[in-house]
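Need residues for this backbone.
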């Protein structure tokens, strides 16, 4: 079963003309053949990363196969300059690499996998002594529940409810800023922004995971670099309903403290400080080889962008305002109003996006605070409450929240009855009784009724 990366259907129209965003096939004009110098592999968090070092740009396509599980990387007009073997790593999702020339001029690389995996890819331009690179990130695909056989529609009378349109959870994309050779800001005590924002993001993801009607997608799961464009692509591929980028602020004046929440502004920043901040957050990406994100590609795109952004800017603003009012309870908020600046990572035309500066890592007391469990937990709690308030008025139609069905649980791939029961503080027997389940068989997408807690 081949799977190629396609923009999802409901956003296809908008994406058309957006310069290849979200597509795995990257056409490069004026290309004259490239060589692959080597393939490097690393494992961090749940991600196995392969980096193809190239002596020039190349167009490529990627697809996955199962039985056995493989990822195939086709590089047009490329050849292997050296052996592309990788050293074995039992924690890696990749068991081995094979490669061969095809059609005289193309290179096919086949990665044999230990488990079915999702593949994300992007290119990096030469930067800081590194050559052209093709980066491939693999994460294990959750396994389906033990028996994935659908109950026939006719078997009515069971407690499993069927909706005419299947309801879904709202998807919260959580993006820990920086990573890998981009540490972000560094505090006077040596605390790195990339580390504390990943910890905060993980705590937030745990909370969103437990929240009825919501589902988190962590954009970066370990300590590795991701360009800004790729962060947007991953949120969009996950069909995110909101995008939260988490950072920690820094400024020369060490006395400045407090948190802030920003949204995108194409027309100038709300303050000089906001403008500098956006410059700093954007510039690391270019320095490290990210492909620049153009704001306007052509007139059609520009019209679509304006239409979509005026809608999502309103939504982004409401989200930011709700987050700020909750973050007041956790600590000092630098400015009570939503700030605007031109952050590249927020430039997703169709997903309401905000950038949270959790605190000033340049302020010694806030730097210490950023490392503590208690601050990280309270901040994650506050963001979750802000998300609840936002979705109470902005949940898209067809979601459990919009339809007021928070007494429902949609089974995810890999979930078991015992996992679901413990999440809702029930026993498996109780859960089965409420839903008239004759045995422990469930399937992904099935909707379970969850009785009100404490009732
Ligand atoms: Zn940052």
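Answer:
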């Amino acid at each position: 079963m081949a799977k190629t990366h396609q923009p999802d259907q409901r956003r296809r129209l908008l994406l058309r003309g957006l310069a290849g965003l979200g597509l795995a096939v990257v056409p490069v004009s004026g290309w004259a053949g490239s060589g692959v110098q080597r393939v490097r592999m690393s494992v961090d968090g749940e991600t196995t990363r392969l980096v193809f070092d190239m002596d020039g740009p190349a167009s490529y396509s990627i697809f996955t196969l199962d039985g056995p599980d493989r990822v195939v990387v086709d590089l047009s007009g490329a050849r292997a300059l050296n052996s592309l073997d990788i050293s074995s790593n039992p924690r890696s999702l990749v068991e081995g690499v094979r490669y061969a020339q095809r059609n005289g001029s193309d290179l096919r690389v086949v990665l044999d996998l230990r488990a079915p995996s999702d593949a994300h890819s992007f290119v990096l331009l030469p930067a800081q002594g590194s050559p052209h690179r093709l980066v491939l990130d693999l994460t294990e695909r959750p396994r389906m529940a033990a028996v994935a056989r659908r109950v026939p529609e006719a078997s009515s009378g069971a407690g499993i409810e069927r909706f005419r349109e299947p309801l879904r959870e709202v998807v919260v994309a959580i993006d820990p800023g920086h990573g890998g050779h981009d540490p972000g800001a560094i505090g006077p005590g040596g605390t790195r922004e990339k580390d504390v924002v990943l910890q905060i993001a993980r705590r937030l993801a745990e909370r969103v995971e437990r929240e009825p009607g919501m589902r988190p997608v962590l954009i970066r799961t370990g300590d590795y670099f991701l360009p800004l464009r790729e962060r947007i692509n991953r949120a969009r591929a996950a069909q995110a309903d909101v995008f939260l980028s988490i950072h920690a602020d820094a400024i020369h004046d060490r006395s400045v403290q407090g948190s802030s929440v920003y949204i995108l502004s194409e027309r100038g920043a709300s303050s000089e400080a906001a403008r500098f901040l956006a410059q700093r957050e954007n510039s690391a990406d270019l320095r490290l080889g990210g492909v620049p994100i153009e704001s306007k590609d052509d007139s059609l795109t520009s019209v679509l962008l304006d239409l979509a952004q005026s809608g999502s800017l309103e939504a982004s603003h409401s989200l930011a305002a709700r987050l700020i009012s909750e973050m007041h309870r956790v600590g000092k908020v630098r400015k009570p109003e939503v700030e605007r600046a031109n952050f590249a990572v927020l430039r997703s035309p169709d997903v309401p996006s905000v950038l949270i500066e959790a605190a000033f890592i340049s302020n010694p007391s806030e730097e210490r605070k950023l490392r503590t469990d208690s601050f990280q937990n309270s901040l994650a709690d506050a963001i979750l409450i802000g998300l609840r308030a936002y979705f109470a008025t902005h949940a898209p139609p067809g979601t459990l929240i919009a339809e007021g069905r928070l007494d429902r649980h949609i089974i995810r791939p890999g979930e078991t009855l015992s996992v679901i029961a413990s999440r809702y503080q029930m026993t498996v027997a109780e859960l089965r009784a409420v839903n008239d389940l004759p045995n422990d068989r469930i399937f992904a997408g099935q909707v379970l009724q969850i009785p009100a807690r404490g009732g």
